[in-house]
Specification:
- The protein is α/β, with parallel strands linked by helices and 456 residues long.
- 31% of the residues lie in helices and 21% in strands.
- The protein folds into 2 domains: 271 residues, Aminopeptidase (3-Layer(aba) Sandwich), CATH 3.40.630; 121 residues, Alpha-Beta Plaits, CATH 3.30.70.
- It has a 6-stranded mixed beta sheet, covered by helices on one side. Strands 18-9-8-20 form a 4-stranded mixed beta sheet. It has a 4-stranded antiparallel beta sheet with strand order 13-15-11-16.
- Strand 1 and strand 2 form a beta hairpin.
- The radius of gyration is 23 Å and the shape is globular.
- The termini are close together.
- This is Acetylornithine deacetylase/succinyl-diaminopimelate desuccinylase-like protein.
- Keywords: Hydrolase, Metal-binding, Protease.
- It comes from Rhizobium paranaense.
- One of its GO terms (molecular function) is metal ion binding.
Length: 456
Amino acid sequence: MRVPSDLLAAATKDLADLVSIPSVSTRGDGLGACADAVEALLQDAGFRTEQHPGDVGPFVVGETGEGPFTLIIYNHYDVQPEEPVDLWTDPPFVLSERDGRLYGRGAADDKGEFVSRLAGWRLFRSKHPEPLPYKLIWIVEGEEEIGSPSLTRFLKTRFPDTKADLCWWEYGEVDRTGRPIILMGFKGVLAVELDCRTARADLHSSLGAIFDNPLWRLASAVSSLRDASGRILIEGFYDDIVAPEPYSRELTATAPFPLEDLQAETGGHRLLNGVDATTFYGHLNFEPCLNVNGFHGGFGGEGAKTVLPCSGVVKLDFRLAPGQHPVRIAQLLRAHLDEIGFGDIELRVLDAEVLGVRSDPSHVAVGIGAALLEKSFGRPAIIQPSSAASGLAHPFVHAFGATLFGAGLTHHGAMLHSLDENIIVEQFENMIGFSSDFFAALAENVGKQSPEAPND
């Protein structure tokens, strides 16, 4: 559907207003102001609203409708830091338009997603003002970019007995050719830091003839964790993984986009052993992985300095499959280091909150959504069993019993967490149209015994 020009202009202004608030949760900046702005938008759209404090930023809740079906929409208003500012083409907290794209920190992640859905809601209500025949709970938080430290606790406190049918997740993807991707799951995450100290202070490098080097120890420890194919070598690491369902396996048997497209979008070129054009998609969906995020220590300035460092630090993250618990993986990592002679290396757990989840892709609402995404974007939707990334979706899936549904406008060149973050204007409009249609289709179908996907 074509979105009315005045509604599209209003949505763009809403996005500009939100982008102008530097709601960086890492620094605790602008979170209250942005929560107030989000609440005002939800109130204006007819929702009953509340704010609740979080550890860092407030939670905003909007509710409306009644009925046997419950839809939860989850978004976040916090954003990543904008540095390095001087590499942005335009100021990061000013929404700018160039060549059919809208640029700004949060334009995609996640303010653009929130605004597109809210504009779709307004369009839907302009055509369907009658009482909503299902319950809609909209939760917008301000701590997602720092791991949502208080989300699980908030949900337990505010919604202790809530059961939901569907959770429309904070984002979905659009591939390089414009095909929408529905995400049905996410990987868990464990982030850790390894610290090694071997002396009180840096020493003359000649003493390397008798004293060990903390960077060597860390490098040796890290190299013991993974082989060249990416398979993790920690004993027991794979024991608890929940195998993908047959339909999920079927959905990944043939990649919906070529490996070359992903390489072109990311600039990534060196593949792990055993990963090729036929296997990469299954790895992205189902395989856990281990990453070295940073290796720090010693001298990094210009020229030479012959020094034996006294300490070093390595930061790692694991992306985990459903069934793997981050705390358990941290315990296995500690046991592995101790077993092979690295008991002196300190292990600090930085993030162990996010569990992997994967929902049933045969859920009727997914079929409805897929048909409507094809209508709005003009390309058949891809149903992807799991994102390669992580999100704190398990409280919605495990506690609420909701099926996960990740549909959105984050295209593969959106530069999330990077400079010149952006969305494509045409896809912004498509997502508004889809959102309106999706709200309407749920209203038409949730009261039926056997809901059917709508016709184009």
